[in-house]
Records
---
Amino acid sequence: MADDDTHTTRTDQLHLQNPVSRYPTISPPEQHQPEPGRESELEPRADIGEFSYRGTGRLEARKALITGGDSGIGAAVAIAFAREGADVAITYLPDEEPDAARVARIITDSGRKAVTLPGDLTRADFCRDVVEQAAEQLGGLDILVNNAGKQVVATSLEELPDEQLEQTYQTNILAMFRTTRAALAHMPPGGTIINTTSIEAYMPAPTLIDYASTKAAINNFTKGLANQLACKGIRVNAVAPGPIWTPIQPTDGQPKEKLPEFGQSTPLGRAGQPTELAPAYVFLASPESSYVVGSTIHVNGGMPSP
Ligand code: NAD
Ligand code: MG
């Protein structure tokens, strides 16, 4: 990773630390990137745990597929899974190749296999094919993290274009149905599915009604599917992040003028870093959470959530 990555921490997640000051209170300058955005162009850089996440063997020999694993939360989860002993396949959009290559290098440097699978999850055939490719190249599949997402602000319902509405639903919820359906053909008992939802499912921002409603759908899908699959020994759960500094934010995920105060209204007073999400996914993926089914872990700096 670049030497300019001044916001990364070298202290692992297992030491006593004050959560208020574990990471700096960032005030990102107003900035904009075209979708899907690049981690490498975020200012300040985000912390995906390359220098800090320490594994303790909790996912030894597991085989994981993570959608949107090139950047942000998905990248942090990919690194953590590899450090915990899993081989990891990541999906991403073709424009994100440099971010994906960096994550793949960190996975292989951690001693695990990395599989990179570019493509567009709004396409039903890609949702199916990507799972088949992951299972083939990993030699099986027992963890699926449905994490890819699209978030673009619209000031009012009247200004929400049909194209955005459809793409947000395609990416965030329809792709989740399709990839999960394909994955079930490969998942053994003990397999785990983890969906990335959002605080927006409970506290929808007036400018994100399309996005927020897909996250509410993800919550319902998580609980219903968990109920359906529990008897087969496959657990489904979700992680609900609060404001996390990732490329989704400066690609119109927030109004540009709101970026300087991003995350500062949380009780911890700062935005979260992607690596702070990773332990929740590791827990839900591992057999440690064997009695946790249809649940949501909130990782949001203390924002009130159900
Ligand atoms: P991110 O931009 O780093 O990751 C999102 C990824 O989604 C992209 O890297 C891209 O690979 C993938 N993606 C988007 N459209 C796609 C498409 N059509 N086909 C294939 N892949 C596509 O941002 P992130 O914040 O890490 O987002 C990860 C998840 O976290 C998303 O589901 C997002 O809704 C959720 N989330 C983020 C926050 C936050 O504050 N950052 C808060 C709550 C929930
Ligand atoms: Mg990305």
---
Amino acid sequence: MTTPLVEMDGDEMTRILWQMIKDELILPYVDLKTEYYDLGLAHRNETDDQVTVDSANATLKYGVAVKCATITPNAARVKEYGLKEMWKSPNGTIRAMLDGTVFRAPILVKGIEPGVRSWEKPITLARHAYGDVYKNTEIKVAGPGRAELVFTAEDGTETRELIHEFKGPGILQGIHNTEKSIQSFARACFNYAVDTRQDLWFATKDTISKKYDHTFKDIFQDIYETEYREKFEDLGIEYFYTLIDDAVARVMKAKGGFIWACKNYDGDVMSDMVSSAFGSLAMMTSVLVSPSGVYEYEAAHGTVQRHYYKHLKGEETSTNSVATIFAWTGALKKRGELDAIPALGEFADRLEKATIATIESGRMTKDLALITSLQDVKVLNSQDFIREIRRTFENM
Ligand code: NAP
Ligand code: MG
């Protein structure tokens, strides 16, 4: 390796898996260079969360990061870890600094069949991660009155729109987005489609929301025509826009193998549907892509707290490390591509194949054993599953 990967260590069971993956599957084969940041909650607390900011800055500097799952503190965690304050979600901080879009794709293996019969290839969900209902302002209306939307320009000019004349109690909600954020979202989606050579679908409710959703549609179309149409045509891939209802209906009959870009709320809901229909959150990769071409790879699941407490009590766990392994292979492949080191990409491809082959041969963790259609399955503990992948890798 020439440029280091930004390595963001994390919490609980995934922190345990992190070390096992490095020891068994990466360090024996790769002359690994990383710049290490410990995002474990104790260290975030010691550094007043500065380590999270530093790790995001390092990602902007080097271009590729691999991240372990981390605890997002709540009241219980403040007590459990004796925190100075309820630190913000590291993912939220990193996402805001990288101005990114999150892409999630399932890892398909034979024996774990998708709930939707027509799906043969992965469906990647791209979720806009800024604004709309996630940054809303709400009012509970107590009784009759007039609700208006008011925008005051810097020069004091007001624009007003009547929302509703309330005859009785009701509810109100104000949401927004920015052109800059929507443009970043669009470019991240187009770049990802070009990178992975897949078609891109984008859907909103523009027939009803003639200014709000329509602006999303227009921004995507403008950027496509001026910056991407040629590249898409050269690669033989397609961009199209359709209504969200139509997209939902089409997805159910599609074969997969495309990217489905969604506004923030649609992406939140649809990614849970797509991932559970494909089988398991532990078989879902996640990558944050910024419009400037910066990549952060992680697993889609959390720190698997329940398994960690069992581990602490000395009990055996059977935690699935596949998504975390694929976070490493994704990051190594991207580093190899950017630095023109084909051996890194070849290693990552081989490790992915070994991981899938291990499961397809019937050796897997408990979460997969519960849903597989394979017969004669051997359920392995967390450590043995990783060792079994190493054995498969050595024999390939
Ligand atoms: P979780 O870690 O995703 O686990 C929820 C449940 O899903 C587990 O208890 C387990 O079910 C199953 N599961 C998830 N990943 C698995 C794996 N790799 N192998 C086997 N089973 C797996 O979610 P959580 O327990 O709600 O959250 C724990 C912590 O993670 C929280 O502090 C949260 O803030 C954090 N979190 C972080 C991220 C991130 O950093 N990207 C994302 C989400 C949550 P069983 O117990 O039934 O076996
Ligand atoms: Mg959700």
---
Amino acid sequence: MRSRLHLINVVFRCYCCRRMPMMPAQNNRLVLLYGSQTGQAKAIAEEIHENAEKHGLRTDLFGLELTEKKFDVTKESCVVFVCSTTGDGDPPDNATKFFRRLKKKTLPSDHLAHLNFAVLGLGDSNYTNFCNCPKTLDKRLQELGAKPFYPTGYADDAVGLEIVVDPWIEGLWTAVRKQLGLPPESCTVAGETVSMETTDNKQTPGGVPNSVVQDSSGQTEGKIDMKDGRTGETEINGQHDDNPEKVIESQSDFKNKEIVKSYEDSTNDRTSMAHTDVAEAVTHSIELENKGGVISTTKQSTGPQTENTASDCCVDATDSKTTDKSENKKTAEASGTEKHILEADTTGSKDRDRQVVDTVKEQAGPSLRVSVPPLCDSGLTLPAKPVPYLEVEFHPEESLCIEELPLQGGCPFPSASADVVMATVTMATRLTRHDAVKTALDIELDISDTGFKYEPGDSFGVVCPNNETEVQDLIDRLGLTDHADVTFSVKVIEGTKKRAAAVPAHLPARCTIRHALLTCLEIRAVPKKAFLRMLVEHTTDVVQKRRLQELCSKQGTADYAAFIREPNLRLLDVLTAFPSCCPPFERLLEMLPRLQPRPYSVSSSPLVSPDRLHFVFNIVHIPSGSGRTAPCTGVCTGWLDRLTRHMQTGVYGDMAEEDGIAEKIGQMSLNDPLKIPIYLRTNNHFRLPSDLSVPIIMVGPGTGVAPFVGFLQHREKQRALSPDAVCGPSWLFYGCRHRDRDYLYREELERLAAAGVLDHLVVCFSREDMETDGAPPARYVQDNLYHHGDDVGRMLLDEGAVLYVCGDAKNMAKDVNEVITQIVQKYKGCTIQEARNTVFQLRQDRHYIEDIWT
Ligand code: FAD
Ligand code: NAP
């Protein structure tokens, strides 16, 4: 198995930053600092750094780990922080030292009185401590006397970081210049414009809008004629016609037709509403929050959600005078309206035309490949062209031992508290019946002789590769088949204009295209706008190029959200939708983020077996549709499923029976040990209380039950080791869909309950009718919490219990929080606000602990 071999026998190298002398602080220097866990904050800081020069600013960029090596905030006067949050609102790994020093209680209140700062925070509002780290940073800087010179931005990954990031950066330049005492930009750059303003979409005398494309440096796209809007119109409508007049004529014709007018009205309304939604959402929150010095959005509407099929191109089809049939078919295929258009073409009757347009009206709207007015007629402000900075040199004469390559170039993994080790898979058990909604797999790992030590409540990272077939598809699509397995080295292009250009640390010095795509790059990452901007440069078809420009433009924000971000499109989906786009591999090395390991909670106790570790996951299935060209499984869960298929057994017996594979298992594990790379993650919070008498309340539906199985097994052993110890009561609130299909670890939980280790096993089945003795049925864990509200309230408020919640962050954890608040309110007889304050305090005191994920 190739992917297995790729990951075995790895060598681990430490990535060490070279020590460089610290730059002397200067009055007009802007220092950009980032605290980044997975690379997003770093990428945004780099973007600011990259564009600063165009705005006449000199910047220095450093990771926060370089505090007091390359920068010292006690000596700087103007600093911009870009900072994310990790774990339970903790600082990213590279920022821990910086935060530790900043938080020292002995620092005087004027410690940073000389410092002016701005903060761009990144977070995810699915989590309770949204943007906790940037919020803490902002607060602490001000406590130490520093002054914010620009409102703090809180970008929310749950709705799209770009919604806040883009306008925040846009406004930053003016604020920085003002702060540094520099004149406004337009005065400094004589003869050039660095304005971010969009070119007016002014109508030409012929009624044709000027379609102007401008990048954020104010430069106009070469291929679209600014003086003659017709060129842009030709491109917008996909008419590859040498005679732009013809297209313009047809446009004018349309505009005189009432039927088309009404179509336009309907689409205009819808589209402009989508645009307005976003613009308003941002503007509103900026205005609203500016009062408190904050820019943020949370769960604002971001535009049209539905997959629409018709387009402006379809309207062209109704104009028999000017429309070429083959072009029509092409554009219709792109927009999914082929049938209607062909009908219109063959009859040519006015009634039919009207029917077609009516159908179009019903379905009209933008789609991934097609835009409608006003966007398709609009001038565009594009992000700056990403500057190429990597070049690849092939070494066909060199053979490479892929198996010996360090994992991701030996670059340290995020949240790692120990080295990567190779653990042997000893068992893979399906915990769900064949007819369950999701398939859950329990995997047992042998960690003997690896030095891997864990505690119940820990999570660990699985270093997984991408899907081999998907990688092959990408290689084929990019025309790289002949080079896929040839050794290459990568270096920075000499004289590149890219600032702080460096070969990504997660790429091995010698590599192959296949290896890089399989193990180093997140090929499923949703392409950011800058990525699409790069793709524009490598797209030959003018219609496709224009659409990509729209999708990455400021004006196309709603379409980007609806057709790229929300459906979670991958690079391969975008390349499929835009067949004339073919970026060079080097550009992908620059733009694709690092492939992230996937964390899993341990579902066992080392006291039971120090050499064995269990974890459980649901295999993620992502359907096709909304631009996703093929269904697929999650990167890691799909990989683990494929990897262990030959050895899987089922608690319901169906797997082993189905495949008759039971006896193969022993042989496989003896002859060919299956190893996967894992590493321990830091988690100091999700722990059993050291005092056994403290009551515990565990809430974990679905796979969220994982750490609690470990907790209870641990408790069982602890009790056996200290038979005289007083044990506090333990409650587990568990939920699944069907008692007989997806009740994970049922036997073990019932055994632990029967053994008295678990005092209360409270289970609900969300898709079964439950007998309730007259009480309202409990569908979800929070319903059962509510039913047992008196016990829960007493334990939490009077008996010092610890409440643990694990599993889904998006809905479950929020609903549980709400019910706990209600329970507290009822138990204390207080107002809802007082109850919220109490719950907040419980969290602060670590009596309400979450380990949740989306
Ligand atoms: P990915 O390839 O990462 O795909 C998942 C992503 O696909 C989703 O985030 C979403 O963006 C997208 N997606 C999913 N469905 C759709 C859809 N219908 N349409 C469009 N896009 C879609 N998980 C467990 O199962 N068990 C655990 O014990 C566990 N513990 C965790 C502990 C921690 C601390 C954390 C942070 C996470 C934990 N997770 C756990 C989650 C786990 O890390 C993975 O995220 C999960 O298993 C999916 O990984 P994957 O690589 O298979 O999926
Ligand atoms: P799941 O199988 O989808 O759901 C389990 C049960 O929860 C079902 O009965 C479901 O009911 C119910 N449910 C749905 N909405 C709910 C709500 N708002 N409140 C309470 N219950 C609700 O769950 P899963 O896939 O195992 O886990 C969900 C998520 O948790 C995944 O994203 C997983 O990655 C994550 N996870 C994180 C950790 C961690 O951070 N340590 C550990 C494990 C899992 P219906 O479907 O009938 O509505």
